[in-house]
Specification:
Its cofactor is Zn(2+). The protein is an alpha/beta fold. 30% of the residues lie in helices and 27% in strands.
Length: 317
């Protein structure tokens, strides 16, 4: 097998390794590809807490592929079956995972499918409690924000999409956003959202950036008694919040990240069902593809966000 290790800040190495064998209750997957997650960027930058090199394939957790070996005590799966799965070593041609962490893919999903981030989006949407007629602001229209825009529009919510890049705002409109607001000036955004909502602001605000300013902004545009949903991954240090404002508005704050595998797997099944039903289309969201050996370029692109990038992935075959 081939596997990539991160060997230092901004550096990778591709290694040839023996093919791993699955143990009892495990399967081996020959990966077709693996999505690149923004959560990889902090380790990629080489912070003090990071240890190099990573394990072979390490940090890759958005993989999909075909089963090519079964361990003992594995039922209801077969060799050759195409699957998405929860794993942590997907920057490689092969990965061994527990059979319980696998969800089969239907024939209707024939293209690339990084299942984990779609599952993440489905779980965030469920915990957001968005319903018909809700006014919803989504701050940050990358992959996650775009999926959430589509899901909210599907149930009849009125979505205000707030993002920096013109291509992101265009994607939000494609996904069903009723209004778009450039993410430029803090007070101007508050004024525009106030105007768009007749001064009532938004029933639900989803912060999907993972930085201090968007979190501050979210607290300013949520309605009294509304919900502020933290979907961004805040991994670069502590945050401060305006608790006086949060108290006064009486808002509900939801940290929408999930860590329970069984909930993630249900989110993955829900994403597959949404795609099969035509409620969600992965194609416009998977925009930049790189070979496994160019993982460094894929990570740089995820960090630098060239115009039009939504999600990058690497091909592993």
């Amino acid at each position: 097998m081939r596997a990539v290790r991160l060997t230092g800040a901004g550096q990778i190495a591709v290694e040839q390794l023996p093919l791993p064998e699955p143990g009892p209750g495990q399967i081996r997957i020959r990966l077709e590809g693996c999505g690149v997650c923004a959560s990889n960027l902090e380790p990629w930058a080489g912070p003090d807490w990071m240890t190099f090199p990573t394990e072979p394939g390490g940090l890759g957790h958005e993989g999909w592929g075909r089963i090519d070996a079964l361990g003992t005590d594995v039922a209801d799966l077969r060799e050759g079956q195409r699957v998405a799965f929860l794993g942590q070593r997907g920057y490689a041609t092969h990965e061994v995972v527990e059979a319980a962490m696998v969800v089969p893919l239907p024939d209707s999903i024939a293209g690339p499918f990084p299942g984990e981030p779609f599952a993440c989006a489905m779980n965030i949407f469920r915990r957001s409690g968005i319903g018909q007629g809700d006014r919803v602001a989504i701050i940050g229209i990358g992959f996650l924000g775009a999926v959430l825009t589509r899901l909210a529009a599907n149930v009849g919510a009125e979505v205000i999409a707030i993002s920096r890049r013109p291509s992101s705002l265009a994607l939000a409109r494609q996904m069903g956003a009723a209004r778009t607001v450039p993410m430029e000036d803090h007070h101007a955004i508050i004024g525009q959202v106030s105007d768009l909502t007749d001064g009532r602001f938004c029933d639900v605000v989803i912060e999907a950036v993972g930085k201090q300013w968007p979190l501050d902004l979210a607290g300013e545009i949520v309605a009294e008694g509304g919900r502020l949903v933290v979907a961004g991954y805040h991994q670069d240090g502590p945050r401060q919040v305006n608790m006086q404002n949060w108290n006064w508005r009486g808002i509900n704050v939801v940290n929408a990240h999930e860590r329970r595998p069984e909930v993630y797997l249900q989110g993955l099944r829900d994403a597959i069902a949404a795609i099969e039903a035509g409620r969600l289309d992965p194609a416009p969201l998977l925009t930049h593809v790189f070979p496994l050996e160019a993982l460094d370029q894929a990570l740089d692109a995820t960090r630098d966000k060239p115009e039009g990038l939504v999600k990058a992935y690497v091909t592993c075959a």
